[in-house]
Amino acid sequence: MKTKAEIEEKIRVFSLELAAELGEISGEEHGSPFAALEMLAAEIGDQLSCELLTQQSRMKNEMRLPESECCCPKCNGPGELKRLRQRDVQTIRGTTELTEPEYHCQQCRRSSPYSIN
Ligand SMILES: [Zn+2]
User: Fold this and answer.
1) Ligand 1 centroid to residue 11 C-alpha, Å
2) In 3D, which of 78, 52, 74, 48 has the Cα closest to residue 66?
3) Which of 20, 51, 106, 110 is 20 to 30 A from 26, comparing alpha carbons?
4) Ligand 1 midpoint to CA 111 (Å)
5) How many structural domains is the chain composed of?
């Protein structure tokens, strides 16, 4: 895992690239070029937050989990991994797509996203 300073450096480098690609910002819609840039920067921050949550969830759940690590929320028995499903979730930064495993319990004949601990 990267340190906070390493992540800040990565963001700084990425921001430099974005700033160069954005070029001149017109302030017509927002009153001033700075206000327009502030709005755009906030949108980019929101998009980055949502994308980070989506990718973290996908990476974490695409590693197939051993059956013994999950159990049915009803009977506590083992579940069989059925599929990974995507679900849109509203966050304070916008909508993000979470990936979660769906397990099937043969005893209860039910499928659900079990909590994995
Ligand atoms: Zn069950």
Assistant:
1) 45
2) 78
3) 51
4) 9
5) 1
